[in-house]
Amino acid sequence: MSDHDDDDPRAAARGLEFPTDFPIKIMGRRDDGFAQAMVAIVQQHAPDFDPATLEMRASRDGNYLSVTATVRAVSREQLDALYRALTSHPMVKIVL
């Protein structure tokens, strides 16, 4: 890692005590099925995630959608695996 760990959202996980509630913001094009696809990935890594708690917000022009999933993280490894799954999904542009 560089001296700029503040730029890496996963850097925050290094100082966490588990279990903890951890918000993950996922951004992608506003396409049909984006939110559902993100919920499916999140639930693979955090089975107790409640989709009803998903927060959604469209961009000003309506082209993009951000969804925030707050998961009950039990380990850094769990969060790393979730980030890898999300960032490798073709609908995802950014994960924070």
- Biggest sheet, in brief? 4 strands, antiparallel
In terms of quaternary structure, what is this? single chain
Q: Strand arrangement, largest sheet?
A: 2-3-1-4
Radius of gyration over C-alpha positions, nearest whole angstrom: 13 Å
- Classify the beta-strand content into a percent band: 25-35%
Beta strand count: 4
Number of domains: 1
Overall CATH architecture? 2-Layer Sandwich
CATH topology assignment: Alpha-Beta Plaits
Summarize the structure.
The protein has 96 residues and is an alpha+beta fold.
Describe the structure.
There is one protein chain. With 96 residues, the chain is α+β, with helices and mostly antiparallel strands. It is 29% helix and 29% strand. The chain is built from three helices and four strands. The chain has a four-stranded antiparallel beta sheet with strand order 2-3-1-4, with helices on one face. It is elongated, with a radius of gyration of 13 Å.
Which labels suit this protein?
elongated, 29% strand, 4-stranded antiparallel sheet, 96 residues, Alpha-Beta Plaits, alpha+beta
SSE layout and pairings?
Blueprint lengths: L10 H4 L5 E10 L4 H12 L9 E4 L5 E10 L2 H12 L4 E4 L1
Antiparallel strand pairs: 1-3, 1-4, 2-3
